[in-house]
Amino acid sequence: MKTTAVERADLARSVLSVPPLARNADLSLDVEANAALIRYLEAGGVTTLMYGGNANFYNIDLAQFAETLGMLQDKAGADSWVIPSVGPDYGRAMDQVAVLREHDAFPTVMVLPLNFPATPDGVATGVRRFAERYGKPIVLYVKNEGYITPELAGKLADDGLVCAMKYAVVREDPSKDALLSDILQKVDPDMVISGIGERPAITHVTQFGLTAFTSGSVCVAPRSSTALLHALKRGDVAEAETIRERFLPLEDLRDGISPIRVLHDAVTLAGIADMGPMLPMLSNLSGDERARVEPVARELAALDASLADAA
Ligand SMILES: N[C@@H](CC=O)C(=O)O
């Protein structure tokens, strides 16, 4: 596992996968299933694993947070980079520093965005205090308009407290995004990652100059998502658009039902690894929903497997 400090080049090296977390029936960690998903991603060329929303780190308790860090350190490949998440609330994030000190190998963590009422000044202060206590620059996750101002985000970056920003404000038309434009006046685009999967990734990279993208559906189709990243890097937008199309049936289901729940069960239904039950406050798909997701997930995984066969 990568243990060295984050460099700009690290961000663009791989699609930043955002995997679900596999659990046994009693909600304990299913180590073998998590390892199987990690191996599936790595075999598809994905070496960055960010455990955040799709793994429901929002609701993980402190003991299982520690256990998960140990498991990820143990199961990630030698060249892989694992980014766990902390928060989303301030007190919990500060408490998690003690656990991170016992698992000091991780180069950074992402601070999850809080849905409870918050102010930009309060968020900037909370992130600053967390990063100072942690002692390493963090990944700032901007998911909503008004969460933090471009100026405050830029100040955190200038002060060396932020090594990357995950930008995930959903827009009807991602090419029209005044907030992102303003952020890029204050934060180096090399530090900013498109954070909403394959759908807006091409626009974010080609029009705004973002450095790479995060994806949940990469956990079903790692080769395809990696091919999309490579196409973008060599400027082949037409090829990138063609690859992106493959993801839209699953992304449509995710957006229509629940991005996190559909991904969790899609990994199971595609036969990649059994993710098991979801940690409260989330729950697995209904029978009807599973019936809609299964063929789509299987088709995407099969398409991805055909890329391996062709290689
Ligand atoms: N939310 C996006 C990207 C990850 O954060 C996804 O799940 O595809």
From TrEMBL:
InterPro entries according to UniProt: Aldolase_TIM, DapA-like
UniProt entry tagged with the keyword Lyase: yes
Keyword Lyase listed: yes
Transmembrane segments: none
GO molecular function ontology, one term from the record: lyase activity
Keywords: Lyase
SUPFAM superfamilies documented for this protein: Aldolase
Designated name of the protein: Dihydrodipicolinate synthase family protein
Species the sequence originates in: Kaustia mangrovi
